[in-house]
Design a protein that fits this description.
Helix content is 45%, strand content 22%. With 304 residues, the chain is α/β, with parallel strands linked by helices. Helix 1 packs across helix 4.
Length: 304
């Protein structure tokens, strides 16, 4: 029977190689020598009867069988964590919570809540990854994470997700003060020679911006994609582009006058919220983190 030949440590090693796309990096992450990782991957391949990784000149990539095994490996490790935590349910809370957030929100507004959580629950480790809304939902469905913190518009209609609102916000168009003045005078015509600056097509902000673009001047605008909110703000401050971003992410620049809101171009309400799979009962550490974030005053982002 296949289950009799499997060991939990093999799955942990498999996941490390899968995420790092490298035997050497997986070994460093796990504290093993490379030969141990190679041996454990080989033994897992022998157990399932298929090759799980293709070896490349630089690193590895999963085969079709490896991609199929991925979801089961995450679930296997998750069941192990649930068993361990369930047996120690009445003791000091401990375990690992895998949280994925939109970097531009998490970096600016999540640290205070996390810092106080770490002090209150020193034996709970929080592993934080960055991802856009679509990436986070995909990771939840694949059971690669326990909890997401994402922006929503209140109209998604996810039947398999539980969304817990944390803070209201709004998406606004921002530009340099000089360009914002031209936009106030000319509407979209004042942005015709600018670029739409954003995170790219996987980002909800960019998708909403594209849906609001109107008129020949707007359609003629170029596009630019950047990896961080700081880079987006720098491009906008220079006058080179305009962006559709959460007010919370540019509040300091608006107050300092280095960026200006472009009211004539419109805006849209959003809600930042915690999300998890409905069909999956959250473990104790996950519930503790959910309650802590929800109760930590993130509503300071509320838009009146």
């Amino acid at each position: 029977m296949l289950l009799d030949r499997l060991e939990g440590r093999f799955f942990r090693t498999f996941i490390a190689v899968l995420e790092e796309r490298s035997i050497s990096k997986a070994a460093a992450r796990l504290g093993y020598v490379q030969s141990t990782v190679t041996t454990q991957v080989r033994l897992l391949e022998e157990s399932v009867g298929q090759r799980l990784f293709d070896r490349l000149p630089r690193g590895v990539e999963p085969t079709e069988a490896g991609r199929k095994l991925e979801a089961y490996a995450y679930r296997f490790l998750q069941l192990g964590a649930e068993l361990e935590e369930g047996l120690a349910e009445h003791g000091e809370p401990h375990g690992v919570v895998r949280l994925q957030v939109l970097e531009s929100f998490g970096a600016s507004y999540l640290w205070d809540a996390l810092q106080s959580f770490f002090i209150k629950y020193p034996h709970i480790d929080v592993q934080i990854a960055a991802g856009f809304q679509a990436d986070t939902l995909e990771a939840l469905r694949d059971r690669r994470i326990d909890l997401g913190l994402i922006p929503g518009l209140g109209e998604e209609g996810w039947t398999d997700m539980e969304f817990e609102p944390v803070a209201r916000d709004e998406l606004i168009w921002v530009a340099s003060p000089e360009r914002a003045e031209r936009i106030r005078a000319k509407g979209w015509g004042g942005a015709a020679d600018a670029r739409l600056v954003g995170f790219g097509s996987r980002c909800m902000y960019t998708s909403e911006a594209e849906s609001l673009l109107s008129g020949e001047a707007a359609r003629a605008m170029g596009r630019a994609e950047f990896a961080s909110l700081d880079m987006i703000k720098q491009a906008v401050r220079s006058g080179w582009g305009i962006a559709f971003v959460p007010r919370s992410g540019v509040s300091r620049e608006l107050a300092a006058g280095t960026l200006s809101a472009c009211a004539p171009l419109g805006k849209k309400e959003i809600t930042h919220g915690l999300v998890h799979l409905k069909q999956r009962t959250p473990r104790r550490p996950v519930n503790l983190l959910r309650a802590h974030i929800a109760g930590c005053g993130l509503n300071r982002l509320m838009i009146e």
